[in-house]
Amino acid sequence: MSPLAMLEFFADARGMSTKYKRERIDAVVEICDLSTVLYKPTSKLSKGFKQRVGMAQALLHEPDVLIMDEPTAGLDPNQIRGVRATLKKLSQTKTILLSTHILQEVEAMADRVVMINEGRLVYDGTVQGLHEHGPDLDAAFYKLTRGVHI
Fold it and tell me: Which residues contact 85 (CB under 8 A, 6 or more apart)?
């Protein structure tokens, strides 16, 4: 299935009118920069493009909240930069919940951090506030999740 066929399938599954479906597909193709791969088999796409196709599908119905789980995992540095830029742009009009273990992603993209360890809330605040718990995010994470004072 090509990215276009997949987007059409999900639009149809959501009951979108023909006009709205075309508008939304055009919009997410632009947002996720998919025009060069729109007709290629999804199975032949790089991991980065597969991530973008998934993001386009998630954006198709214009959600107010976008939940992303490790959106940059396994991507090369250029792809990471592209995903970060896209999410930053989307965050101007949407709430984005980003689940990640990659602390560089937290520092690069988050305005607010909620840290959960073993089902318990251990931090809720700004990225800057995390620095009160350690000299860098790695140290702060370790201290907050292990209860060890640094």
Answer: none
What is the rounded radius of gyration, in angstroms, for the C-alpha atoms of the chain? Answer: 18
* Tokens encoding 52: 């973008």
Is the domain of 121 the same as that of 91? no
Number of structural domains the chain divides into: 3
The conformation of residue 59, written as its DSSP 8-state character, comes to H
Which range of residues forms the domain containing residue 148? Answer: 111-150
What is the tens place of the pLDDT at every residue in 96-109? 999 988 888 888 88
pLDDT single digits (tens) 4-36: 999 999 999 999 999 999 999 999 999 999 999
Q: Whole-model pTM?
A: 0.80
In b/e form, how buried is each residue of 21-52, taking b as 16+ CB within 10 angstroms?
beebbeebbeebebeebeeeebeebeebbbbb
The SS3 assignment for 74 reads coil
Q: Are 103 and 138 in contact (CB under 8 A)?
A: yes
